[in-house]
Amino acid sequence: MEFLVAMGTGIVSKLGEMLMDPVTSQFKHLIHCEKNINKMKKELNNLKDRKRAIEGMVDADRRNGHHIAPNVEHWLYKVDNVVENELRKVYDDEFVNKNKKCLNGLCPNLVFRYSLSKKAGKMAQDLVSLKEQKFDFISYPAPLPTLGSTFTEGIKSFASRESIMAEVVEKLKGDEFNRLSVCGMGGVGKTTLVKELIKILEADKVFDEISMAIVSQVPDYRRIQGQIGDTLGLKFDKETLQGRAAQLLERLNKINKVLVVLDDVWTELDFELIGLPSNGQCHKGCKILFTSRNEDVCHRMISQRNFTMPVLSKEEAWDLFRDTVGGHVADKAEIHNIAKEVANECRGLPIAIVTIAKALGNKEKHAWEDALDQLRKSSLTSFSEMQEYSIYSCIELSYNFLGNEEAKFLLLLCSLFPEDFDIPIEVLLRYGVGLGLFKDLGALCKARNRVHTLVDTLKKRFLLLDSNEEECVKMHDVVRDTVITIGSKEEHGFAVKYDAGQTGSKELIWHHSAISLVFDEIKMHPKRLQCPNLRLLQVYLKRREPISENFFHNMSKLTVLGISNLCIPSVSSPFRLLNNLCTLRLEDCQVGDISVICKELRKLEVLSLAHSNIKELPAEIGKLSLLRLLDLTECNDLDQMSSGVLASLSNLEELYLRVRNFHWEEKNSILADLKSLSHQLKVLEISITGIHILDLELKSLVKFWIYVRDSTTLSHGFGRRGYLHPNILKLNGVYHKDIKENMAIQQLLKKSEILNLVDVKQLENVIYELDEEGFPHLKDLSIEFCNDLKYLTDETVYASSCVFPLLE
To answer: Are 547 and 569 spatial neighbours (Cβ–Cβ below 8 Å)?
Structure first.
């Protein structure tokens, strides 16, 4: 019973408390209304102070390019919403001012007072909660922009570029290639192409990250690391190159698929010192693409595939020129034809096209005509925009960076030839020999190898181009103009070029050491050249006309003279003062009597009369004791050789006797002379009648073109324009027994790369009847009208892979 009473008392007491709490709370809201409102105002001011502080930090971070944290942005929005909207619901100043008595406790409207106090108290708590909200960070760095988005200029779509880009993209998408390169001459657009490639790769999401660094001619490894690190968001905290390299490599290894582009690479780079993966050091997803104007550098950096960028085609060049200058200008009736010719003069080099188009875009017709004149005359140095936009410095940098003085020398020699000329490599050799460039090499064959090596170097640097003509190279006009400018700027300039109709004797400056003259008409050339320091002179004429007797006056230092298509009826007068001449080329000339050459030119080492009309090789030529090369190619009027003339040439290394229908069978003394010097010859080109008279010692031959025919066969149909073709032997109308028994022919068969057998009589089995040991160097075998032939070889005795190991 007591328990029940106690329980009932507790319940009543609890019910009383529960009833009293709400009542007390209601009275508190009524009593503390003014206090709650003041607290709300105070907390509102505190919140505004915090908001101003946060906004200050937000503004500062935004100015630094940071992104504001979403929760901070939301907080600022919420604060604004509370101040602007929620507080009005609680505390309308205008309404409260009308009810001041209520706020002072004199208002009979207890309901209003209670509601206002309750809302103010709740709002004060909310304001405190907002003010005290904590943030881990206000902002964070903005994500790095994609590399492609930083490139402002695009590349116009050209077929010559699209095919390259498509193939590069294909290779980069696959797993087979991790190092690729793009090569080309300076100004051809390599950088523009790789930038467009980057945009394509980013759009296709081929890589997770793409980075790019510009290397330039003197690599700064720290700067390269910085450029790559910046695009990858990597902050280096190491001081040494090796430490930074380790950081960069670690960062690259953490990216699933990454491409690093190294632009404008001039020398082989140490990938390890940069922090780039060497082969096998990084996962397959890390790939490297580099651009260079030196193909050798790409090979040394183990590029698995090199893409060579050509100049633009004529149509592409015009499209680019027209777009750059603006169709509204290029299509004007008075400008259009001139614009087309100006575009053609740029020879497809994008940097020249864009530069000149920009320079002429707002010019009148007279400026266009003047520009065309300058371009045609190759006087681009006076075209100020060419200097302003560094076209010349772009090419000059490639020239200076060659390092090899012989390569520079050879490039200067190439600049002596006319525009768009097919430059014979053999002529470069002969000029170099005359200038003493290869004295340390000894034999001409070794010097020839050096010249070809230098030519390869210049081609791989895109300073020389391939030619469609055999054993020739070409030079881009802009490169040529630049090299001419380089040569003529020097105090004792090596190369200067004067074109037809532009040269008077007063213009031929004394200090020049090499000059090339090209004339349309003989009347336009000067009668006398005042060039006492001249060492090389080259003269071209479009039609044969006489040369002045005083043309070479005051040229005692001349060591190389090349004359084409001139008429020199009296050889003694023009050459009488050229005592130091080492190389003389009188090609395609009407030269008359040449017996006096030996009297005046005792230092000659190279003499070429190719394609000239000489009728006799006089005995006096034998007095040229230093002569190392004699070229009589296609001197088809040649009918007489003085006895002993060849035998007297004790230093002769190379003899070119590709002369049609010379009557060898009547020249027993000449054959004896030829036999006496054959052991010392390194190069022999000869068309000769009758295998029985080819009794020569030819073990020393390195290069040859030899055509042996019977007396009834005319020497034609087996011509050759260039030099240094693979070793050729043609046997026409002879008996196979004579071939087998002739020691000279057997020596030639061992070295032949091209063998042409025509109407070889009684030949049944090539190997057995000609040479049982086979043809170790043969690549091309041609057999015509050998009507008795049954077998090339008997495979029961000889395996074809042994007797024809290189046959193509």
So the answer is: no
Q: How far apart are CA 527 and CA 89, in angstroms?
A: 109
- Series of mean pLDDT values for 10-residue runs along the chain (808 residues): 43 44 58 74 82 85 80 83 68 50 53 72 78 80 65 66 90 89 88 88 90 87 90 87 92 91 91 82 77 90 91 88 84 86 84 81 81 69 52 77 86 86 92 90 90 91 84 86 78 50 46 76 56 85 72 83 80 73 90 76 91 87 91 89 88 90 75 87 88 78 87 54 75 86 87 91 82 84 90 70 81
Residue 350, pLDDT score: 84
* Token output for 167: 């193939």
Do residues 187 and 478 lie in contact, with contact meaning Cβ atoms separated by under 8 Å?
yes
The owner of tokens 């029940």 is: 4
Place of tokens 């080819």: 694
Question: CB atoms < 10 A from the CB of 403, how many?
Answer: 8
Q: Are 179 and 304 spatial neighbours (Cβ–Cβ below 8 Å)?
A: yes
Which positions ≥6 away from 644 have C-beta within 8 Å? 619, 622, 669, 673
pLDDT at 182: 93
**Secondary structure of 561-588 in the HEC alphabet?**
EEEECCECCECHHHHCCCCCCCEEEEEC
Q: How much helix, strand and coil, in percent to the nearest 5, is found in the chain?
A: 45, 15, 40
Structure tokens at 229: 């690190």
Tokens representing residue 642 in the block: 């003085």
> What is the maximum span of the chain, computed from C-alpha positions, in angstroms?
164
Cα distances (angstroms) measured from residue 556 to each of 177, 533, 553, 581:
60, 8, 8, 9
**Collapsed DSSP state (helix, strand, coil) of residue 774:** coil
Cβ–Cβ < 8 Å for 279, 302: yes
Q: Do 473 and 722 form a contact (C-beta atoms < 8 A)? A: no
CA pair distance 168, 162, nearest whole angstrom: 10
Q: Structure tokens of 545? A: 């006309």
Q: How far is CA 704 from CA 290, 523, 683, in A?
A: 42, 41, 6
CA 673 to chain centre: 51
Contacts of 523 (CB under 8 A, 6+ apart): none
Q: How far is CA 88 from the centre of its chain?
A: 73
CA distance 653 to 624: 13
CA distance 128 to 733: 116
Residue 265 carries which side chain, given as an amino acid letter?
A: V
Residue 322: φ, ψ to 5°: -65, -45
SS3 call for 618: coil
Closest Cα to residue 509, out of 518, 496, 500, 527? Answer: 496
Give pLDDT, residue 504: 44
Q: Is the pTM of this model over 0.85?
A: no
> Using the 8-state DSSP alphabet, how is residue 531 labeled?
-
Where is 210: in which H helix or E strand? strand 209-216
CB of 240 closer than 8 Å to CB of 190:
no
Q: Residues 716, 718, 721, 727: is their CA dihedral positive or negative? A: negative
Q: Can you say how many angstroms the Cα of residue 274 is from the centroid of all Cα atoms in its chain?
A: 23
Q: Residue type at 139?
A: S
Q: Which long-range contacts (CB under 8 A, 24 or more apart) does 193-197 make?
A: 193/155, 193/161, 193/164, 193/165, 193/309, 194/261, 194/263, 194/289, 194/291, 195/148, 195/151, 195/153, 195/155, 196/154, 196/155, 196/161, 196/165, 197/165, 197/168, 197/169, 197/289
Using CA atoms, how far apart are residues 10 and 506, in angstroms rounded to an integer?
133
How far are the Cα atoms of 691, 735, 742, 756, 763 from residue 748, in angstroms, in the given order?
13, 16, 10, 12, 18
